[in-house]
Write a structure and sequence with these properties.
It contains seven helices and eight strands. By secondary structure, it is an alpha/beta fold. It starts with a strand and ends with a helix.
């Protein structure tokens, strides 16, 4: 039996992922590091596997012991609008995730899987994509991290607690996107959060 830890369990993908892990018989315990108490009704936990821990992400390194699991999943992420500044965005989407990867390595977990973005490129003119690309480079260059892998979704579909205009438009026009985006463009299709969560689970090292 395996144990897992999830960062970003309250987000769109994080919620879907935690529910998948709770139903997976290979896992006996799912630890979730969160900013505030979880809304238990959003998680199906019939076997009492869910172990939420409220932490201060600005002191993430102080919680190193929680990374003593088999698999670490990182679903942390925000938007420039929600973060309020480029510095705040980078703190969440680069610094927190990078520290999580370092703690995974320090505690010798078997693997680390995180959410990046389609088009991530350290040389991109887009600040968002540049940060995602810089993070990919930083993690993949880390020595002694046994196994690390990123999923690169496009616009996410699913029911959010907060409204996001682009994603709302993507939901309404999904049939058109599916028809037009074929071949090399297929990777840019909007994707459901549950499918991203399934991809993260499939990427883990067993």
């Amino acid at each position: 039996m395996k144990s897992a830890m999830v960062l970003g369990a309250t987000g769109l993908v994080g919620r879907a992922l935690v529910n998948l892990l709770l139903q997976d018989p290979r896992y006996q315990e799912i630890t979730c590091l969160v900013r505030k108490p979880l809304a238990r009704h959003q998680y199906n936990d019939p076997h009492n596997k869910l172990k939420p821990v409220v932490i201060d992400f600005n002191a993430l390194q102080d919680y190193q012991g929680y990374f003593s699991v088999n698999h670490v999943y990182c679903c942390l992420g925000t938007t420039l609008k929600r973060a309020g500044s480029k510095a705040a965005f980078r703190r969440v989407d680069f610094e927190y995730v990078h520290i999580a990867a370092q703690l995974t390595r320090a505690q010798r977990a078997d693997s680390f899987v995180w959410i990046s973005s389609v088009g991530a490129n350290a040389n991109s003119r887009s600040f968002y994509l540049r940060v995602k690309g810089e993070l990919e480079n930083a993690i993949m260059r880390m020595s002694q991290l046994p196994y690390a892998s990123a999923v690169r979704p496009s616009l996410l579909l699913g029911k959010r607690d907060d409204a996001r205009t682009l994603e709302d438009i993507a939901k309404k026009t999904a049939p058109v996107w599916q028809a037009l985006m074929k071949g090399p463009l297929k990777k840019y299709r909007p994707v459901h959060a549950t499918d991203v969560a399934r991809n993260m689970l499939a990427l883990q090292r067993w």
